[in-house]
Amino acid sequence: MKDKIKNIFVEGAISPSKIAESIAHHQSKTEIGAHNIFLGQVRADQIDKKKVSAIEYTAQIDIANQVCHEIREAAFSKYDLSCMHIYHSLGKVYSGEICFFVFVSSAHRTPVFDSLTEIVNDIKAKLPIFGKEFFEDQSHQWKVNQ
Amino acid sequence: MKDKIKNIFVEGAISPSKIAESIAHHQSKTEIGAHNIFLGQVRADQIDKKKVSAIEYTAQIDIANQVCHEIREAAFSKYDLSCMHIYHSLGKVYSGEICFFVFVSSAHRTPVFDSLTEIVNDIKAKLPIFGKEFFEDQSHQWKVNQ
Amino acid sequence: MEIKVRYFGQLQEITGVKEASFTLPFDTIGSLRAHLITIYPDLKNINFKIAQDNKIDSDLSDLNGTLIDLLPPFSGG
Amino acid sequence: MEIKVRYFGQLQEITGVKEASFTLPFDTIGSLRAHLITIYPDLKNINFKIAQDNKIDSDLSDLNGTLIDLLPPFSGG
């Protein structure tokens, strides 16, 4: 089983062109009728007059990939999905850039809607990933998920 | 009000690079934290040993755009969304190509998940768009939404 | 008053017509529907909505528009 | 037996340490947690999970792993 665990982490921001490439790869899978994509983008949150300029992500990578693998397997067994792709940034991602990409595909729309929400919520709750929010003055605070 | 109604229709398939462009346009909107994208892709459905090779879309464009405008306004008033983009193909779209693109963005993830499902379902149910499914032997049938 | 009737999607196949003009008076949308079914009996086999002047309307409504659209089941997306 | 303890995220700031080795015996994960809090009292102010050998585990579990990770609240996505 160990070799089936995928590495979800990429260094730095996820570019729109990488997302386009991923979409284009699915054009040969003609049993697919519906794609659903979630993108997390770094917000320039204003906190006490200071603005977030970037988030630096670190993770316990082995556990994160293992837990993500379990989330993935659970979604495949619960929903009728054709494929699923998950990427998360490590390192600095600047405000306006994309740090999180989840992409599910199915013959029909109901499985993609139901599974995507669940996968995204699970990843946010269960993966040991840590965001350090940098302000424009280089001070920082640790991100807390809502 | 009339001039605020957007034309959702584009000729032919929606390319992955157009989707990437649309995503990239949002990098300056740093109040956004979550994007959710639905893509409809033409399936090569097998029906009585014949395979769908393309769908040709026609529409009553004036009504479709008006009804889509109402769906859009309703979603903006119900959910806390930063922006919304909707495109649908007209003319022939081949299997594996994308014919429908709905893109919603918000500060947080809950509004994008809730609104996207509703918008996609409403568009499929309420817009006078008609799909003619062509088989590989050039015979055809009229698409019926599930 | 002349009305223009347009047929969409598979209704073009059933009637063999894309659009046609009528000068007959129809009081309601329902009476136009009934008339069209007498001309094209196969229309009985399909559900279609009728719009007048770019608004989908009920069979009970007065027919007072000049642009009438016959819309078969929707299948966008 | 030597165990390696790694501190993640803000726990590195609180302790000033990225990783450290311990040779003391701890029967449970909870007893390691208690020991670390005596060394770094500020750890009391933050919720953190403890993993051994790449599995998040409960304070009641026997400590028998050699790689121990201290994980502050998760904030990915």
Cα-atom radius of gyration of chain A = 16 Å
**In CATH's first tier, which class of chain A applies?**
Alpha Beta
Mean pLDDT of chain A: 96
CATH class of chain C: Alpha Beta
Percentage of residues assigned to helices of chain A? 25-40%
Strand order of the largest sheet of chain C: 2-1-5-3-4
Largest sheet of chain A: 8 strands, mixed
Counting structural domains of chain C, the number is: 1
Helix count from the secondary structure assignment of chain C: 2
Q: Which class do the helix and strand fractions of chain C yield?
A: alpha+beta
Number of E-type strands of chain C: 5
Largest interface: A-B, 40 and 41 residues
**Share in β-strands of chain A:** 35-45%
Assembly state of the chains shown: heterotetramer
State the main characteristics.
heterotetramer; A: about 150 residues; Aldehyde Oxidoreductase, domain 3; 8 strands; elongated; C: about 80 residues; alpha+beta; Ubiquitin-like (UB roll); 5-stranded mixed sheet; 5 strands; about 20% helix
Give structural notes.
The complex is a heterotetramer, with 2 copies of chain A (146 residues) and 2 copies of chain C (77 residues). Chain A has 146 residues and is α+β, with helices and mostly antiparallel strands. Chain A is built from 3 helices and 8 strands, in the order βαβββαββαββ. Chain A has a single domain, classed as Aldehyde Oxidoreductase, domain 3. In chain A, helix 2 (61-78) packs antiparallel against helix 3. With 77 residues, chain C is an alpha+beta fold. Chain C has 2 helices and 5 strands. In chain C, a hairpin with a 2-residue loop joins strand 3 (49-52) and strand 4 (55-57). Chain C is globular, with a radius of gyration of 12 Å. Classes of the chains: A alpha+beta (146), C alpha+beta (77). The A-B interface holds A 16-17, 19-21, 23-24, 26-44, 95-98, 105, 107-109, 112-113, 116-117, 120, 146 and B 16-17, 19-21, 23-24, 26-44, 95-98, 105, 107-109, 112-113, 116-117, 120-121, 146.
